[in-house]
Amino acid sequence: GWQFHRWTGDTDAIASGETTDPAITVSVDRDTDLTAHFVVDPLAYRLRGLNFSPYLLGDTPDWGPPVSRERITTLLEIVAPYTEWIRTHGATHGLEHVPEIAQEEGVKVAAAAWLDSDLTTNEAEIASLIDLIEAGHVDMAIVGTEVLYRGDLSPDKLLGYIQQVKGTGVATTTNDTWYELSQHPEVMAECDVVMANFYPYWEGEHIDEAVKSLHNQYQLLEQKAGGKEVIVGETGWPSDGEAIGEAEPSPANAAYFFLNFVSWAQAEEVDYFYFAAFDEEWKDEEEGPQGAHWGIWEVPSVEGITMKDGMDCVFAGDTIPDNWTNDSVEPEIDFTYVPPIGSFDNLQGQVSGVEPAEYRVAVFIKVDDNWWSKPYWDAPLTSIEPDGSWVCDITTGDGDERATRVAAFLVPADYDPPQVGPDQELPAELYEHSLDYIKTGRIP
Hints:
The protein has about 450 residues and is of the alpha/beta class. It has helices spanning about 10-15, 70-80, 100-105, 120-135, 145-150, 155-165, 180, 185-190, 210-225, 250-270, 285, 310-315, 430-435, and strands at about 25, 40, 50, 85, 110-115, 140-145, 170-175, 195, 230-235, 295-300, 305, 330-335, 345-350, 360-365, 370-375, 380-385, 390, 405-410, 435-440.
């Protein structure tokens, strides 16, 4: 029943008790040879999951020969000690070998079929994925990656592919951006679990606000997931490339986001697949220079793969305290843009001091002597974005552009605002149930 790990330390130091390395655990029988039987676990923490691709340096999934079993084995031997799961992005062109080899390395596999607008290729991917499942090499099946985001397939066509794979004995899902999935509840309903991508970098978030933004987006999607588990399918931060808004790629920011995200995932008990294991040079043509720098390991050569500076602290068990929940003390709602009378622009505002996913904004306008809920009487609540911003269409009826008064109330997401009749003022109930409110007048 012994478990052995490679270790190059001083076995005499273990025997004499001189080592103080907390990562070393010695489990040995009194009468056995200590130098031959000792157990070393060098990691305090293993990732829940890691996005794995073997296309390094000049390799690409778009052309060239299939990736070899030897390459896959070499790379999986590197990552296997650091993660409980890996996730693939295709089931052909050599990637069909990944699940079996990963299982030999003791790693669970979320295997994917790559889908796009080429229906012939899609059928080959689906057939290969089903073969892998039937061979017992797959622990979770992923049918397509960001298909809705790219617009390659209609939701109905994607649902057809998901249904082909469901019922094969493993949990089945698709993977897309959190926003696309939130707009397609019928797709989430067909999945056994919900798998979503969250990329604060691509959304231009400052590194200090990145995980807070991700946290809010996760909560928004979780509310729409019908009680199903939401898994982070991809997230990460590039170590080099171009700034997007306030998001700056750098080695320090990549390491900080890695630590911050894993700290969040552990505290919030969220399963995830971090993106990605290795830098992939071929992606710079599609994503810009930052596309080649998402890996935990950098790849100057296949023989010289090394973990990037600062990444090791996660595996040492380091975490940082909660910096993702909103720490404002007083809930507050403000207008950031009130369109003038006669304009058909949308009303805009900002909320602070609350978790955006847990609250809504109830907007009312006064036209002549009547208050009306907006955008509609039967849709009286406006969602709040993860950054606290909100936008409401207040000109959905005849004459709404003439409104002389505008009011907005910050209320719980499950609150049902009262309807207001002709010649009535806003009822006291609104003020009693709101955390904050704001009103303004508009002069012709």
